[in-house]
User: Which sequence fits this backbone?
C-alpha cells in the first residue's frame, strides 16, 4: 500500500551508471565495498541483519510462551514484562519476538516469488518484443491496475485459514507487476546496446544473451525490486492478519494488532499493546527503504543528498553550490550579501 | 485521440479481467461456505434470490462452465450482485451504494490534496537539493513504511477522546440523519478530519520522494541550462521548465499507485469505523458474507479504473506529444 520507493525506472536510459557495462576486472576489487560504504545502505543492512537474527533465534530467546496466560492482565511495561501484557496476561515482548519469524518468512518468500515472476515476464517482454511483448505488457498492466489488497482479501477469505506459505504465495502472485514493468523498460533500453548486438551477431543463443549479457546489467533493478516487494509483502501480511482472515494459531505483528484492536486496547489506554508492533514494522520498513535508497544512489549518483553545499568565501559571502550552476560573486557593495547565481553552466556531471 | 481510445480499450479489457477473476475465485474452492449460508437462510430466501446466488457462486451443478459464465454476465449487467447475508435481506448493490459515497469523498479528496501537496513539496526539495529540505527524506521514509491503519490507531490514541474535538469513530453524530443540511454536513466533515489526516500523512511522502528524484534528474537537462542562460527568473525556470517536465512521470505514477492507496484507505476506514466500503468489507468478512465481499471488490476495481481514466485525461492535457494525431 505504500508507493514503491525505488525510482530506478526514472533514470533516463543511457545516463545512469546502468548504461556502462560492468567495470574492468582490475577495478572490481577496489569497488566491491562501495555499496556498503554508503551510510544509508550500511544502516539498512545492519538493521535488517538484526531482524533476520531475531527471526531465527526469536522463539528460543522469548522469555514466555506467547500464548501462555498469566494473572497480570493488561499490565504496562515492567521488568517482568518488557512490553506489558494483553487482556489474557500474555507477554507482548514474547509475541513480538516469536512473530518476527512469520513476518520475515512471508516477506522474503513473497518477495522471491514476485521477483522471479517479474524477471521472467518483464525481461521476456522487453527482450522479445512484438506480439509477446504486447500480451505480456497487457497482463502486467491489468494486474497493476486491479487493487491488490482487496483482491488478496477476497482470495484469502475464500481459502479459509490460510497458512503462512499460502499467504506468501497469494501476495507473491499479486504483487509482481510493478517490477515487471520497470524491468521491461530497462530491458528495452539495454537490448539495442552495442554489447548485446555484438553477442547476437556472434550467434549466441537468446538464453545466453539474456542470462549473461542482460541479467548482470539488471542486477541493481532486480535487487531494488526485491527489497521493495519485501516491504510491500510484510505490510500486506500484517494487514491481512490485522483484519483477522489469516490462520489464528501462529503469531505475527498483525495478529498482535488484531487482538489489540478487538479488545479495545485504545479504550483501556494500553498503548504498549499496539505501539511496539507498529514500531517494529516501521523500523523494518525504514531499513529496507534505506537499502533501496542505497541501491538507487549507487546506480544514479545524482540522487545523493548533496551534503554541505553552503560555503563561505574569503570576503565573507555565502555561496550555495549547485550542480549545473556556477556561482558568481559580485564585488560591488550591493545591499544583498548573498552571491547571485548566474546562469553560466559549468560542472555538468560526467556521463 | 488514438491514444485516448487505446486507453479506453485497455480499461474495458481490465474491467473484463476483473469480473472474470471475480467469477473464477469462488469456483476454485468447493462451494461449501456459501452452500451452508444459503441452507441457513432457506426459509427466508425467495426463489429469485436463490437463483441469483447460485449463478454468482456456481452452485448449480447441472450447467456447463460456459453457460454459467454467460448467466453471470447477464446478472452483472442487471446490477444484481446477489443478497447480502450481513444486512439480510438487503441486496448487495443497495448496501454498496450506501457505503460508496463515503469512501469516494474521503479517499478522492484526500488523495488529490496529498498528490498536490506532495508534488509541490517534491518540487521544492528537488530544486533546492542540499538545503534543509533533504532533512525531509528520512522522515518521509519512516512514514511511508508505517501501515496506514497503525497511524490511524496512534492518531485516535493521541488526538481523539471523549472530550476532544476529534471523534474517534463513525461518519457523523449518532443523533443525526444523513441529509444535506446545516447539522449533518459539519458533523460529517468533523468526523472525516482525522481519517483524512491519517491518509494524508502516510501517502504524501511517496509523492515528495518521486517528485524530488524526478526534479533532480530534470534539473541537469540542457533545456534547463538554456532557460537559465536566457536570464529567466529562478521561479520561472523551476516551475515552467523543470517542474512541468518532471510532473509527467508523477502523473502516470499517480494512476498506477491508486490501487495501493485505495487498499490502505480501506484499512483506515476500518480503524475509524468510518461508514465506507472498508468498514462494510470488514463486516462482510466477519460474517463470511461472500456476495458482499465480491461486490465490494468489483466496485473498488471499477472505481480505480475510472480514476485511472481521469488521470489519463490529465496526462493528455499536460503532455502535447500524446495529442498528436497518428
Assistant:
Amino acid at each position: 500500500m505504500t508507493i514503491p520507493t525505488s525510482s530506478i525506472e526514472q533514470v533516463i536510459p543511457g545516463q545512469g551508471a546502468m548504461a556502462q557495462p560492468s567495470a574492468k576486472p582490475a577495478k572490481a576489487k577496489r569497488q566491491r565495498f562501495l555499496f556498503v560504504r554508503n551510510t544509508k545502505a550500511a544502516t539498512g543492512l545492519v538493521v535488517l541483519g538484526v531482524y533476520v537474527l531475531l527471526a531465527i533465534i526469536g522463539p528460543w530467546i522469548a522469555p514466555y510462551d506467547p500464548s501462555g496466560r498469566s494473572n497480570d492482565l493488561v499490565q504496562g511495561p515492567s521488568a517482568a514484562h518488557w512490553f506489558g501484557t494483553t487482556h489474557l496476561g500474555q507477554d507482548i515482548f514474547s509475541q513480538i519476538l516469536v512473530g518476527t519469524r512469520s513476518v520475515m518468512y512471508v516477506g522474503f518468500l513473497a518477495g522471491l516469488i514476485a521477483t522471479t515472476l517479474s524477471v521472467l515476464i518483464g525481461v521476456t517482454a522487453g527482450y522479445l518484443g512484438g506480439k509477446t511483448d504486447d500480451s505480456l505488457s497487457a497482463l502486467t498492466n491489468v494486474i497493476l491496475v486491479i487493487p491488490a489488497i482487496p483482491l488478496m482479501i477476497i482470495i484469502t477469505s475464500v481459502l479459509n485459514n490460510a497458512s503462512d506459505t499460502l499467504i506468501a504465495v497469494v501476495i507473491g502472485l499479486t504483487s509482481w507487476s510493478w517490477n515487471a514493468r520497470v524491468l521491461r523498460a530497462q530491458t528495452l533500453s539495454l537490448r539495442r546496446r552495442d554489447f548485446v548486438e555484438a553477442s547476437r551477431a556472434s550467434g549466441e543463443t537468446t538464453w545466453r544473451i539474456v542470462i549473461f549479457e542482460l541479467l548482470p546489467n539488471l542486477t541493481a533493478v532486480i535487487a531494488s525490486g526485491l527489497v521493495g516487494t519485501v516491504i510491500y509483502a510484510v505490510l500486506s501480511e500484517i494487514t491481512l492478519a490485522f483484519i483477522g482472515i489469516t490462520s489464528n494459531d501462529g503469531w505475527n505483528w498483525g495478529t498482535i494488532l488484531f487482538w489489540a484492536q478487538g479488545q479495545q486496547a485504545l479504550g483501556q489506554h494500553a498503548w504498549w499493546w499496539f505501539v511496539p508492533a507498529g514500531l517494529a514494522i516501521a523500523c523494518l520498513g525504514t531499513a529496507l527503504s534505506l537499502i533501496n535508497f542505497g541501491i538507487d544512489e549507487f546506480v544514479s549518483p545524482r540522487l545523493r543528498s548533496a551534503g554541505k553545499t553552503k560555503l563561505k568565501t574569503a570576503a565573507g559571502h555565502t555561496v550555495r553550490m549547485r550542480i549545473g550552476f556556477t556561482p558568481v560573486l559580485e564585488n560591488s557593495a550591493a545591499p544583498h550579501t548573498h552571491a547571485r547565481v548566474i546562469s553560466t553552466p559549468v560542472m555538468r556531471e560526467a556521463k | 485521440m488514438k491514444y485516448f481510445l487505446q486507453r479506453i480499450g485497455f480499461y474495458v479489457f481490465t474491467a473484463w479481467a476483473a469480473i472474470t477473476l471475480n467469477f473464477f475465485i469462488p469456483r476454485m474452492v468447493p462451494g461449501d461456505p456459501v452452500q451452508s449460508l444459503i441452507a441457513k437462510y432457506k426459509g427466508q430466501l425467495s426463489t429469485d434470490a436463490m437463483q441469483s446466488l447460485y449463478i454468482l457462486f456456481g452452485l448449480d451443478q447441472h450447467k456447463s462452465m460456459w453457460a454459467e459464465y454467460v448467466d453471470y454476465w447477464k446478472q452483472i449487467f442487471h446490477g444484481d450482485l446477489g443478497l447480502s447475508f450481513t444486512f439480510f435481506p438487503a441486496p448487495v448493490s443497495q448496501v454498496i451504494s450506501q457505503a460508496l459515497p463515503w469512501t469516494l469523498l474521503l479517499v478522492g479528496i484526500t488523495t488529490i490534496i496529498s498528490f498536490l501537496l506532495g508534488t509541490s513539496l517534491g518540487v521544492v526539495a528537488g530544486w533546492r537539493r542540499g538545503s534543509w529540505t533533504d532533512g525531509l527524506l528520512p522522515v518521509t521514509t519512516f512514514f511511508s513504511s508505517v501501515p496506514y491503519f497503525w497511524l490511524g490507531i496512534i492518531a485516535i490514541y493521541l488526538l481523539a477522546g471523549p472530550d476532544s474535538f476529534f471523534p474517534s469513530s463513525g461518519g457523523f453524530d449518532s443523533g443525526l440523519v444523513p441529509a444535506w443540511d446545516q447539522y449533518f454536513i459539519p458533523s460529517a466533515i468533523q468526523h472525516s478530519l482525522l481519517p483524512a489526516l491519517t491518509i494524508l500523512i502516510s501517502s504524501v511522502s511517496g509523492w515528495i520522494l518521486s517528485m524530488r528524484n524526478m526534479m533532480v534528474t530534470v534539473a541537469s537537462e540542457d533545456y534547463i541550462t538554456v532557460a537559465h542562460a536566457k536570464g529567466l527568473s529562478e521561479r520561472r525556470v523551476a516551475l515552467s521548465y523543470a517542474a512541468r517536465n518532471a510532473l509527467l512521470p508523477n502523473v502516470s505514477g499517480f494512476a498506477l499507485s491508486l490501487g495501493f492507496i485505495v487498499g490502505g484507505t480501506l484499512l483506515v476506514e476500518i480503524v475509524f469505523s468510518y461508514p465506507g466500503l472498508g468498514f462494510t468489507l470488514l463486516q462482510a468478512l466477519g460474517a463470511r458474507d461472500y456476495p458482499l465481499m465480491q461486490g465490494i471488490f468489483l466496485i473498488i476495481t471499477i472505481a480505480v479504473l475510472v480514476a485511472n481514466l481521469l488521470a489519463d485525461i490529465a496526462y493528455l492535457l499536460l503532455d502535447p506529444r500524446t495529442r498528436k494525431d497518428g
Chain A is about 60% helix and 5% strand. Chain A touches chain B through 76 residues (CB under 8 Å). The beta strands of chain A are 310-312, 318-320, 326-328, 340-342.
